[in-house]
From TrEMBL:
It comes from the Bacteria. It catalyses: a UDP-3-O-[(3R)-3-hydroxyacyl]-alpha-D-glucosamine + a (3R)-hydroxyacyl-[ACP] = a UDP-2-N,3-O-bis[(3R)-3-hydroxyacyl]-alpha-D-glucosamine + holo-[ACP] + H(+). The gene is lpxD. Coiled coil: none annotated. Its EC number is 2.3.1.191. Residues 25-89 form the UDP-3-O-[3-hydroxymyristoyl] glucosamine N-acyltransferase non-repeat region domain. It comes from Pseudoalteromonas rubra. Homotrimer. Catalyzes the N-acylation of UDP-3-O-acylglucosamine using 3-hydroxyacyl-ACP as the acyl donor. Is involved in the biosynthesis of lipid A, a phosphorylated glycolipid that anchors the lipopolysaccharide to the outer membrane of the cell. This is UDP-3-O-acylglucosamine N-acyltransferase. HAMAP family: LpxD (MF_00523).
Length: 346
């Protein structure tokens, strides 16, 4: 069911300056291009400014510097993109992962339940688990023995949390996430692999979001640690004993190998691989498809992924790449010859 708001209600929720009709009805958020007369759009990137002239939006969120370019109803704020995010939270209609404790949920008698905990059908909550107030456990989830989950954390359907994991408050786990699986630890004895039981845990802070099918392995001896306010996209691999600092964001399909340490406020693009035992300092941006083979000690933007080109050009470049050693040897020979000729002339 669609919920209706007035522009005045939205302005109050955002703390924004309203210019126009306070009674303007708003039903949902939309792009400037697709918005109708009961939608609210937003301008966060000036390259879309031209769409202000043709948008049918009932109102637009924009900054004070852009306000003169739109004559309709508007909400003016310092950061329109952040305002859009907060408005999306305010108008969010996403349902709960579960409602109450389902009769088909399996909850051990020793589990400690906070107030207003919800557990969906076919979820399994093992002995010694502690669930804080307002925790939501979706259908088909598994929470292993002696795990602790903080207040207001939400697990969508089919999330697996292994034993003795610690998860903070107000976290969100998308479907298929696996937390606390074994790290990739083996010793080799005469060609036979000898498994090393992973004896550490996973410690996850507050306000952490983990994407669908992302895996966070438990530590081998010490713990894998994800600090507060970290966001992890879908299908990421976090190996054993990794530590990810406050406020870091990692995009989909990236891999953090064992014992990697990522600093605070880093941004790591999609399909990035960081080799094991390397450390990345605070404030680093790594662009997509980069391979990090050694530590990064200075903040900045780092890249190594090769941009696409035509197949013909790529094959030509790769042929040159394969001959780099030969080119280097020939260059050294030419430099040596040049030096000899200089001495001869003198």
């Amino acid at each position: 069911m669609t919920k209706h708001y007035t522009l005045a209600q939205l302005a109050e929720a955002l703390g924004a300056d309203l210019q126009g009709d306070p009674a303007q009805p708003i039903e949902k958020i939309a792009t400037l291009l697709s918005a109708g007369d009961k939608d609210i759009g937003f301008l966060a990137n000036k390259k879309y400014r031209s769409q202000l002239a043709s948008t049918q939006a009932g109102a637009v969120i924009l900054s004070a510097s852009e306000a003169e370019h739109f004559s309709g109803n508007k909400l003016i704020c310092d950061n329109p993109y952040v305002a859009y995010a907060k408005l999306a939270q305010y108008m969010d209609t996403t349902p709960n992962a579960a409602q109450g404790i389902h009769e088909r949920a399996s909850v051990d008698a020793s589990v400690k339940l906070g107030q207003n905990v919800s557990i969906g059908a076919n979820a399994v909550i093992e002995a010694g688990v502690e669930l804080g107030d307002d925790v939501q456990i979706g259908p088909g989830c598994f929470v292993g023995k002696h795990t602790r989950i903080g207040a207001k954390t939400k697990l969508w359907a089919n999330v697996t949390i292994y034993h003795e994991i610690v998860i903070g408050e107000s976290c969100l786990f998308q479907s298929g996430a696996v937390i606390g699986s074994d790290g990739f630890g083996y010793a080799n004895e005469g060609g036979e692999w000898v498994k090393i039981p992973q004896l550490g845990s996973v410690i996850i802070g507050n306000r952490v979001e983990v994407g669908a099918s992302t895996t966070i392995d438990r530590g081998a001896l010490d713990d894998t640690v994800i600090h507060d306010n970290v966001i992890l996209d879908n299908q990421i691999q976090i190996a054993h004993n990794v530590e990810i600092g406050y406020g870091t964001a990692i995009a989909g399909c990236s891999v953090m190998a064992g014992s990697v340490k990522i600093g605070k406020y880093c941004q790591i693009g999609g399909m990035v691989a960081v080799n094991g035992h390397n450390e990345v300092c605070d404030g680093v941006v790594i662009t997509g498809m980069s391979m990090v083979t050694k530590g990064i000690s200075e903040p900045g933007i780092y890249s190594s992924g090769m941009p696409h080109t035509t197949n013909k050009e790529w094959r030509k470049n790769i042929a040159h790449l394969r001959n780099l050693s030969d080119f280097k040897a020939r260059l050294k020979a030419l430099e040596s010859l040049t030096e000899q000729l200089k001495h001869t002339d003198n």
